[in-house]
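Tokens in:
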């Protein structure tokens, strides 16, 4: 944080009902998550003067704010895919630090799974064929195919194996088994991942995130509000954001994600090193995302992600760096732009509220530092937030 500016803390976090939610609208999930976050903080709704939302409605922040009964004087509707919420958190923290807002509420909700089951949308939602995308759409580039191509390049370049990628899914499921709110908790093996139906080579079904319903909310506030909040503060220590490409032909290196830039900036601003981080929450729509983001955040060298993940380092129980402690998008929940869920879980871990999946430092103490890193599009954007207590 820049000297002379106010410190900013996360004072409230929550999830709405998640998993299989067939009988509510996404607006209702927004409201449920927002009410729970305010209750978590012990803060009255009237104190919220900033609001951030994306992904719902014709005018996303306006419609959702109206539904929630808010009349904010600071708004953000940044939409950069899964990284949206880390980028929004960065913007909100800057606004609060500068005195442009006092308390900012970030809210997301989606009935992605229920909508497909009810026939309100399809599972192959198109991103369109205008602008730069027109040069790739004729060749059948789906979102998952783009991630699969990137994974194959990493395998070619560095010898990363299918078994190493599969181990990411296995460890995510092991963490989910400790989380009673996770959608899938039954153990899986590397063989289970490798023998599943092929979705986009090299990804089989279990290499890919699940599809769920659900919502989340995060409330940030200026330091002077902290003493009146119900929960201990989790401080925003540093943030970074970066966008790199939208067409695959403009991506210089398929083995490097935009987290290489956003992470470096966030760690520099926070004044901490990757090896000081106790818990990492990383966007994992596909197993390769976890592996390459760990490299790009500096937890291991470029090309060494495969060896890093195969040693069980990502596990809550016995792992050197617990990653996606709730089970992540691969096993816990993934209702679309999942970045806000990363922030919720990071805060719960730092506050010691993760119950059976609570991570611990080697000395048995609670985590002191956490990082949440979201990725959007097909490695098009990244937002990274370093948090501490």
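Residues out:
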């Amino acid at each position: 944080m820049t000297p002379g500016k106010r410190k900013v803390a996360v004072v409230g976090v929550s999830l709405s009902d998640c998993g299989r939610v067939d009988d509510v609208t996404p607006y209702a999930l927004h409201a449920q998550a927002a009410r729970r976050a305010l209750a978590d903080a012990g803060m009255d709704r009237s104190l919220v003067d900033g609001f951030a939302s994306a992904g719902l409605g014709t005018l996303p922040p306006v419609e959702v704010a109206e539904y929630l009964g808010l009349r904010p004087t600071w708004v953000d509707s940044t939409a950069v895919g899964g990284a949206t919420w880390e980028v929004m958190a960065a913007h909100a923290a800057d606004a609060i630090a500068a005195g442009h807002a006092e308390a900012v509420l970030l809210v997301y909700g989606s009935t992605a799974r229920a909508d497909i089951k009810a026939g309100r949308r399809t599972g192959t939602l198109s991103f369109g064929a205008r602008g730069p995308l027109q040069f790739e759409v004729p060749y059948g580039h789906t979102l998952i195919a783009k991630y699969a191509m990137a994974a194959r390049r990493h395998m070619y370049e560095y010898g990363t194996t299918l078994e190493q990628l599969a181990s990411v899914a296995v460890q995510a499921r092991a963490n989910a088994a400790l989380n009673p709110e996770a959608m899938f908790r039954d153990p899986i093996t590397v063989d289970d991942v490798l023998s599943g139906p092929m979705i986009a080579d090299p990804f089989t079904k279990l290499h890919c995130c699940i599809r769920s319903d659900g919502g989340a909310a995060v409330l940030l506030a200026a330091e002077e509000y902290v003493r009146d909040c119900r929960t201990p503060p989790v401080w925003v220590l540093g943030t970074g954001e970066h966008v790199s490409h939208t067409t695959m032909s403009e991506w210089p290196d398929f083995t490097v994600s935009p987290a290489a830039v956003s992470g470096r900036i966030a760690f520099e601003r926070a004044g901490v090193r990757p090896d000081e981080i106790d818990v990492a929450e990383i966007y994992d729509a596909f197993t390769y995302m976890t592996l390459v983001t760990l490299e790009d955040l500096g937890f291991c060298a470029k090309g060494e992600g495969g060896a890093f993940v195969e040693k069980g380092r990502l596990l809550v129980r016995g792992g050197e760096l617990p990653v996606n402690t709730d089970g992540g998008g691969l096993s816990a929940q993934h209702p679309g732009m999942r970045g806000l869920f990363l922030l919720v879980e990071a805060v719960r871990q730092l506050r010691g509220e993760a119950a059976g999946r609570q991570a611990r430092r080697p000395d048995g103490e609670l985590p002191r530092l956490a990082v949440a890193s979201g990725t959007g599009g097909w490695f098009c954007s990244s937002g990274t937030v370093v948090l501490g207590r």
